[in-house]
Amino acid sequence: MTEDEARSWIAAQWDVPRETWAKLERYIALLLAGMAHQNLIAESTRDQMWARHIVDSAQLLPFAKDATDGSWIDLGSGAGLPGIVVAILSGRPVVLVESRRKRINFLSEVAADLRLGHVSVFGGRVETVPTARAAIISARAYAPLPRLLDSAIHLSTEKTLWLLPKGRNAENELEAVRPTWQGAFHVERSVTDPESAIVVAHSVKRKGRR
Ligand SMILES: C[S@@+](CC[C@H](N)C(=O)[O-])C[C@H]1O[C@@H](n2cnc3c(N)ncnc32)[C@H](O)[C@@H]1O
């Protein structure tokens, strides 16, 4: 996907007001400026911000159409991917969970700069987030599926929708959780990379639990 195709993809999905385009542009500028102080995104993706980061994150939103009301919790948010993009494009409350101090500061600065009043930042480990009932949980490049589910199951109910971009290893990771976890899991192709996949799941629970 080229950068032009990426912007066209966004325009085709949503009637994006000019102010929202400006926030996406501003977020990209903040990410690139932040790279002077910390490693927020892979250096090799600097020239593909729209395809590799904005659309790669935004493509989760259409899956969330039928999710219940409530918070979207983004695990291991890093520089805010996908959480900040989701918050720019939707009004749903978003909680960004991140444990590294410099990234926590960056996320707080971005949320304030972009006036994203519906974003909150939890600075700490996912395992220490107080029990919650997320409508949606996302995680991009945070942890392999078994560790991801172990660390975050206390943030979910059976209605929680899990949206987990998983690169090229999705099927293997799914196999790894089958002995321990049950739920309605399926795999969707990524629009930014046909060889990458997004694990979409609900009704996730540990086997043997009621
Ligand atoms: C590879 S980065 C991915 C960041 C972002 N989601 C993205 O796709 O660009 C993984 C992030 O997860 C954070 N992280 C790893 N384990 C964590 C944990 N147990 N609790 C909170 N954050 C964690 C790291 O500090 C890092 O910022």
TrEMBL record:
Instruction: Tell me the enzyme class.
Output: transferase
> Keywords of this protein's UniProt record, alphabetized?
Cytoplasm, Methyltransferase, rRNA processing, S-adenosyl-L-methionine, Transferase
Recorded catalytic activity of this chain's protein: guanosine(527) in 16S rRNA + S-adenosyl-L-methionine = N(7)-methylguanosine(527) in 16S rRNA + S-adenosyl-L-homocysteine
Classify the main location.
cytoplasm
Localization terms from the record: Cytoplasm
Residues binding S-adenosyl-L-methionine: 76, 81, 126-127, 140
Q: Which Pfam families match?
A: GidB
Stretch forming the signal peptide = none
Q: Which GO terms describe its molecular function?
A: rRNA (guanine-N7-)-methyltransferase activity
UniProt cross-references to SUPFAM superfamilies, sorted A to Z: S-adenosyl-L-methionine-dependent methyltransferases
- Record's Gene Ontology CC terms? cytosol
Alphabetized Gene3D superfamilies for the sequence:
Vaccinia Virus protein VP39
* Enzyme Commission identifier(s): 2.1.1.170
InterPro entries attached to this UniProt entry: rRNA_ssu_MeTfrase_G, SAM-dependent_MTases_sf
| Database matches in NCBIfam families | rsmG_gidB
Reported function? Specifically methylates the N7 position of guanine in position 527 of 16S rRNA.
| Family the entry assigns | Belongs to the methyltransferase superfamily. RNA methyltransferase RsmG family.
Q: What name does UniProt use for this protein?
A: Ribosomal RNA small subunit methyltransferase G
Q: Which organism is it from?
A: Sphingobium fontiphilum
